[in-house]
Amino acid sequence: MLLIAGAVVVMLVILKYLPVKHATLIEGVFDRKEDSSDFYQKVTAFWFDNQCRECIEKNSENESLYGQCHTSVPATAINLDSGIEPQNGDSIKIIAWKTIFGRTVMYKLVRTNFADEFAIPQLQQEKDEWEAYGNASDRREAMKRGLGLEEYCQAEKEEEIQYATEQLKLSPEEVVEHGYNKIPQFMLRIVKKLMKELGRNPTRDEIWAEQKKDTADMMERMRSTPIDESYNHECVTFRHSGLYNEYIATGASPDQEFTEHLAECQQCLSNITKLRERFLKSESPDCLTADECGAVRTSGLDPRGRKDHTSKCYHCWILFRQCEEDHLSSQPGPECLTKDNLHTIHTTGEVPEACNAHLVNCLRCQKAAEKHRDEYIDRVVPLPKLPKTRFKSIRDKYKNQTTA
After folding, report:
1. CA atoms of 335 and 116, how far apart (whole Å)
2. In degrees, to the nearest 5, what angle opens at C-alpha 49 toward C-alphas 46 and 53?
3. Which of 25, 148, 237, 338 gives 20 to 30 Å between its CA and that of 13?
4. CA angle 184–190–196, rounded 5-degree value
């Protein structure tokens, strides 16, 4: 009996460590290797560019848990050294030998022609997806503005040039020559900064390099900023509710839960007290009058000729937001859009002509019409999923081999 028990133990030990099968864990474009750990053991993690062979062959649309293709082997697994020390951008596959229980005990890296096989068709697919995404976006925006597609594209182009011209103080010809109308509008501040530093018009490569540097600096500041553990989810919820603006404007709140939170949270009380003081100190003779505030409560819109002042004056900005909230939370008036009007917009995407005059003067109805029109557009021209960025490590090598 003891011999049988001993034999069983020996057999289990052998099965625990004896490799009985092998399989490819992953094949693709190598990104990096890291020492890591899972729930109970240390592992070596291998990260690959999206997408790996399995993703491509299965045409998988599911995002991996970490947003990037990867695999791992136990740190104790034996590397059958094949003389390969993979570098970023190398095409490799990892073959593992496993026990009967599925535990990897040995592995090796093998070079493949993965990039030559898949890079061009995958990058072409990405380019096609971006084109389809852009076309759908343009069609949707054209419908929102009540324009034909060509008419919208021309108007959008002219607006982009005009905006860049105003921001950079350049002629339309200079803007187009340097492609400043083609970059995201929020990056025009970088163009102005570089123009001042360089004494000339920066190239697009210089602009993108500066944007990359700015983003890296911002991420570093975020990582180095200590987290204030006293600032919790409840604080954030109240901060982005209308209750905050109401308290700043009036010094009180009818919401008992919010009042109790301020009594318990010293940080929120301190912040809102400072903002209340700023609100009171920023009042001037040029601020919104009681009649103008009443007009905002009626329409939800900036009083005529006061938009510039409202955007620059903290006192008036708070007043305006408070009055706007009052307007949106009030009951519709007799001239507001009816259920039949909204049904028409929902089913046709068109606003009944009789409603146009009222829409100009009612934010509540504008938002309701926009909601139903957008739902119509979602049915007629659904927006494709945002395309995936493929093969970030090697795309520069192969992207010029795709077709326009």
Report:
1. 65
2. 90
3. 25
4. 140
Q: Tens digits of per-residue pLDDT, 235-245?
A: 777 777 778 88
**Three-state SS for 305?**
coil
Distances (CA, A) of 202 to 173, 259, 388: 15, 52, 30
Return the closest-CA partner of residue 41 out of 100, 106, 104, 94: 104
Q: What is the DSSP string of 34-69?
A: EEEE-SSSEEEEEEE-S--HHHHHHT--PPPTTSS-
Residue entry with tokens 């990104």: 31
Residue with tokens 């938009």: 307
Q: What percent of the chain has pLDDT over 70?
A: 91
**E strands within 49-140?**
70-74, 78-79, 91-98, 104-111
Predicted TM-score (pTM) of this structure: 0.74
20, 99 Cβ separation under 8 angstroms: yes
pLDDT digits (tens, 9 = 90+) for 259-273: 888 888 888 889 899
Whether residue 269 contacts residue 262, with contact meaning beta carbons closer than 8 Å, is answered with: yes
